[in-house]
Amino acid sequence: MRSSSTSVVLAVVLSAGFASIAWAADPPPLPAPAPTTVHRAEGPITVDGDLGDAGWKNAATIDQFYETSPGNNVPAKVKTTAYITYDDHYFYIGIRCEDPHPEQIRAPYVDRDAVIGTDDNIAVFLDTRNDKRTAMELRVNPRGIQGDGIYNDTNGNEDFSPDFYYDTAAKIDAGGWSAEYRIPFSSLRYDNADAQTWNIMIWRNYPREFRYAFGSAPIERSSNCYICHMHPLIGLTGLPKAGHFVAAPYVTAQTTETPEAGPGSPLHRDPLHKDAGIDVKWTPTATNAVDMTVNPDFSQVEADIAQITVNQRFAVFYPEKRPFFLEGFDLFDTPLQVAYTRTITAPRFGARSTGRFGNTAYTLLITDDKGGGLTILPGPLGNDFALQDFKSIDIIGRIRHQLGASFVGAVLTDREIRGGGHNRVLGPDFQWRPGDHDAITGELLLSQNENPNRPDLSPSWNGERSTSHAAYAGWNHNAQKYDWFVEGKDLGNAFRADLGFVPQVGYREIDGGGGLRFYPEHSLLSFVRPNLFIDQQTDRDGNTIYHRFSPGISVLGAKNLQATAVLLIKNQTRVGSNLLEETYLNWLVQLDPSGRLPRITFNGRAGDMIDFANGRVGKGSSLGLAATIRPLDRLTFEPNISHEWLNIDSGRLYTADVEYLKTTYSFSSKALVRIIGQYVTTNRNPSLYGFQVAPHSGSFLGSVLYSYKINWQTVLFLGYGDDRTITPSNDLVKLDRSLFFKVSYAIQK
Predict the structure, then answer these.
(1) CB-side exposure of 158: number of CA atoms within 13 Å?
(2) Torsion 589-591-597-598 (CA) sign
(3) At 717, which helix (H) or strand (E)?
(4) Separation of CA 732 from chain center
């Protein structure tokens, strides 16, 4: 399929902006915000979205906001005022968001953590450790619905996996909307000093003709950090030292029907499965947290949207969502991802300590894993999998010491397999920031491995021993008019990280690139970045594994337009003993048109495509279309469609499709019903393969879930699931169906 339609779209968009592209003179830097002094509340505060309570009288005020996007630290287009105070138990933040057109406020009812940039919202970034490296991010929309996570300045990651206890409420009125936060001190981590210094940033998302970002501090476009620009907060004294305790027991019940004699045969009802467990969190000090779990239940994890994997060399990454693993989650961010907790599949129990002493943060996690799932067996050209149906003790440790804007750290992972075998990884890492524009990062790891002696599970489980190394170094430079980076990797042939996500080893790589930055004014475009990327990857003997040369362009614009186009020219990839060459175009266009059509995304590739299974080059395309459709504030449809095909000289090799639809109806900010349907199909031409393949394969997954959440651990779930599979004769037959119930309640003291 030709990409002419995409080229036309990009050409129209770019022509509208290039006419006014010019390098504007760098404005003089604005002064950093002065410290804000916070006083204790002078009265009670009821969290109902009304800022008229006596407790807000004489609260600290932040009312100077800057438009940081698309404008460059110019005065915000609408007024925002933040109020800050505290009492013996809670930290309070009140926000007033004025709006001359309140009828345009985008305020849908959504699930927790679905408060995103398509809609009006406030994000509070709170750094209670005063290191200006990471911050809690606490969002609220005009319905009082929460979204929370961690913002990590080390690598710019914004991770919404972690959850925190805090209360919010919001109200819309004729002049805009207001929101209130009540954050228990037990949800925060701070040092033991009587006089505290924290940092805060208030950020307002205002999606109208552009997606405007208003921040309470100016941020230079050339800056390589975000948290470093926060307001200092002083005046906080006499805060509680610790002693908070949360226990969240749960019970579940599930009835399942499975085929009596394989897929398609009549279903037989299995015995009712009942289970119970508990998660416990204790904060012995304000800087330390202890998490414990017995027989944890991970049923609250939503099914991952399927990805097309029929023609992939390496394993597909999925993010962690399970609560037990998420305290101090940002500490696991290292250049080489040797800590990936989804490799711990079925822990019987676990314990974790996370905390800080002085400028040093740490986390140590230990679990007893019953096993299951797969272990990645990495290689230079691809990876295999082996069953991990064995018990193990799994340990992940991480420590990081802050040195101003820089840090040094170390990571340890250890899987000790019952009956023999282990995988151990240990090594230091660092990041040095010599100024506001540069970040230099490095990591060195050593692995020691002994495979289990379990040939019944995999031929690879042969008891073999090995040691190896992995190293990374990178330099990133940002300026207002340009940016560049360079990085290198060296991974030994036998390096393994069974508790991480490292699907490729046995190679050396150096890559880098850069781009020019333009900020058009009075245009449909607000940012244009032509760029170039170069990558050279070889095996340990110097043979090319992968070579890439790819010019591209990225733009931002009206209606939160985000568009990229990258042309990979004579891209080389080694498959077996052959170095195959392909030229193709990658693109992505994302737009947030309106409150009823908050987002639509179209992405794909077209041109040459490698058939990895048979070691040859054909012509193919991969297309993806996703949207958010909201006919009512309480009703959301989220379709997601992927379509991929590959042709060789003899005809169509395969066609693969994923059709996904999630429908959510919210009764309130706490209760919703969610329906998911997912249909995955792959159709192959067996005569064009050099080995035996099924002509048809795939599956159907259907589920209905009622969810009631008071907070992220006090929940009620009632669900129904129906799974089906496609046979080689292309029949969709029953695989299983189940009815599920769960209740969990968080007890806090």
Answers:
(1) 13
(2) positive
(3) strand 715-726
(4) 33
Angstrom distances, CA of residue 342 to CA of 169, 254, 270, 348, 455: 34, 23, 28, 15, 24
d(CA 118, CA 114): 10
Cβ-contact 211, 135 below 8 angstroms: no
C-alpha to C-alpha distance for 464 and 447, rounded to whole angstroms:
14
Check if the beta carbon of residue 650 is closer than 8 Å to that of residue 690. no
The residue type at 9: V
* Dist. CA 490–CA 504, nearest whole Å: 11
Lookup result for tokens 């190394």: 469
Which string of b and e fits 16-27 if b means at least 16 CB within 10 Å?
bbeeeeeeeeee
Tell me the residue type at 11: A
Q: Are 120 and 95 in contact (CB under 8 A)?
A: no
Q: Is the peptide bond before 70 cis (omega within 30 degrees of 0)?
A: yes
**Residues 6+ positions from 468 with CB-CB distance below 8 Å:** 446, 447, 449, 491, 492, 493, 494, 495, 496, 505
CB within 8 A of 475, min separation 6: which ones? 438, 439, 440, 441, 485, 486, 487
Q: Which residues are CB-contacts of 720 (< 8 A; sequence separation ≥ 6)?
A: 703, 704, 705, 737, 738, 739, 740
DSSP codes of every residue in 134-156: EEEEEEE-TT--EEEEEEETTTT
d(CA 256, CA 412): 40
Structure-token match 């985008």, residue found: 106
Q: How far apart are CA 695 and CA 681, in angstroms?
A: 11
Q: How many CB atoms lie under 10 A from the CB of residue 631?
A: 10
Do 197 and 234 form a contact (C-beta atoms < 8 A)?
yes
Least Cα distance to 486 among 544, 552, 440 occurs for: 440
Q: Is 112 within 8 Å of 666 (Cβ atoms)?
A: no
10-residue stretch averages of pLDDT, the chain, 749 residues long: 38 42 61 91 96 95 96 96 96 98 96 92 94 91 94 81 89 98 92 91 96 94 87 94 84 88 85 89 84 73 47 47 64 86 85 88 92 87 88 94 91 95 97 92 97 92 96 96 97 95 95 97 94 97 96 97 97 93 98 96 97 95 97 96 95 96 94 93 95 94 91 88 91 90 89
Domains within the chain, CATH numbers bracketed: 1-30+518-584 (no CATH), 32-237 (2.60.40.1190), 246-274+613-749 (no CATH), 312-512 (no CATH)
- How does DSSP assign 499-548, residue by residue? TS---B-SEEEEEEEEEE-B--SSSSEEEEEEEEEEEEEEETTS-EEEEE
Q: Are 217 and 231 in contact (CB under 8 A)?
A: yes
Report whether 281 contacts 296 (CB < 8 A).
no
- C-beta of residue 574 within 8 angstroms of C-beta of residue 504: no
The three-state DSSP-derived secondary structure of 42-60 is CCCCCCCCCCCCHHHCCCE
Is residue 447 within 8 A of residue 415, CB to CB? The reply is: no
DSSP 325-372: G-TTGGGG--SS----GGG---EEEEEEEEEEETTEEEEEEEEEE---
Measured between alpha carbons, how far is 239 from 194 in angstroms, rounded to an integer?
7
Other C-beta atoms lying within 10 Å of the C-beta of residue 403: 12
DSSP letter (8 states) at residue 40:
B
DSSP 3-state of 668: coil
Could you tell me how many residues make up the chain?
749
Measuring CA to CA, how many Å separate 577 from each of 381, 438, 542, 543? 10, 40, 14, 10
| Radius of gyration of the chain, Cα coordinates, nearest whole angstrom | 27
Whole-Å CA distances, 725 to 51, 311, 698: 55, 20, 6
